[in-house]
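Usage

Read records sequentially. Each one opens with the input sequence:
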Amino acid sequence: MFYNLSDTKDPMAEIEEEIILKWCDDEPQKRYATAASLIIPYRANGDMNTFEWTALAKQFILRAPDPKMVEAPS
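and closes with the structure output:
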């Protein structure tokens, strides 16, 4: 579900991560995939040549019932 939105502002950046995670936990089968499709899941690492998962993206992968439901399509 993660998409390349590197030139786009994260629409959920203004919401506290804990609020997003609690919302997802209420209906995890549906909400983790929905929320994952709305965030920018990575940021440029210090050297700008590599990327790393954001803390929220890592939590989605750890907490979703099936991590594949929140990962990028192949």
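Summary fields computed downstream for this record:
- The CA atoms of residues 16 and 38 lie 14 Å apart.
- The chain has one domain: 17-69.
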